[in-house]
Design brief:
heterodimer; A: about 110 residues; mainly beta; 7-stranded mixed sheet; about 0% helix; about 50% strand; B: about 120 residues; 4-stranded antiparallel sheet; about 55% strand; globular
């Protein structure tokens, strides 16, 4: 299995400020033949299923606000919320789909300070 | 609009078999380059991918569950199913079904169903 480790486990950010979540994979999830990183990010609010935000590490899903951005390559990735809004309070997960058995990070809880 | 809905018993006794069904509407499970997955989430914890099945019927499971789990398609009913054998309290969780797009991300999810393993 590829282990996905997120940090921090939780963070509190003031409204309008930047929130940064990191995700580290136990092996590279960059596929050299197409130069794509096999990583997705999700947002989950209480009582709801996860919502896809980003795939290919940096491609924003249609309809996702542009304050959400993904970056990174190889084993180290970042999800950034450029200006935190109240509706962004949630748990965020990364997921690798590089190898046939897919895995999620443990989640990062984002709250308002 | 694609929609997924999980159904099945909310309570299963230890050592018995958990069986859930996901009914898909707005799409045919036998068409397209998609895969159909089960994912679970214990209360207050993170997401665990259980496994997937392609429209071709090819399956893949997470190693920790592979000896106890089966995912199958019923194209006549536009459903796919999860069977988890010999359950214990550690299998208590909200179980989600989801459609995978492209190479491995999940856009469409069911609302989830809570399954409790208890005598």
């Amino acid at each position: 299995d590829i282990v996905m480790t997120q940090s921090p486990d939780s963070l509190a950010v003031s409204l309008g400020e930047r929130a940064t979540i990191t995700c580290k994979s136990s092996q590279s999830i960059l596929y050299s033949s197409n130069n794509k990183n096999y990583l997705a990010w999700y947002q989950q609010k209480p009582g709801q299923p996860p919502k896809l935000l980003i795939y290919w590490a940096s491609t924003r899903e249609s309809g996702v606000p542009d304050r959400f951005s993904g970056s990174g390559s190889g084993t180290d990735f970042t999800l950034t919320i450029s200006s935190l809004q109240a509706e962004d309070v949630a748990v965020y997960y990364c997921q690798q789909y590089y190898i046939p058995t897919w895995t999620f990070g443990q989640g990062t809880k984002v709250a308002v300070k | 609009q694609v929609q997924l809905q999980e159904s099945g018993p909310g309570l299963v006794k230890p050592s018995q078999t958990l069986s859930l069904t996901c009914t898909v509407t707005g799409d045919s499970i036998s068409s397209g380059n998609y895969f159909w997955s089960w994912i679970r989430q214990p209360a207050g914890k993170g997401l665990e991918w259980i496994g997937r099945i392609y429209t071709s019927g090819t399956t893949s499971y997470t190693p920790s569950l592979t000896s106890r789990v089966t995912i199958s398609l019923d194209t006549s009913k536009n459903q796919f199913s999860l069977t988890l054998r010999s359950v214990t309290a550690a299998d208590t969780a909200v179980y989600y079904c989801a459609r995978g797009d492209g190479n491995g991300w999940f856009f469409y999810w069911g609302q989830g169903t809570l399954v409790t393993v208890s005598s």
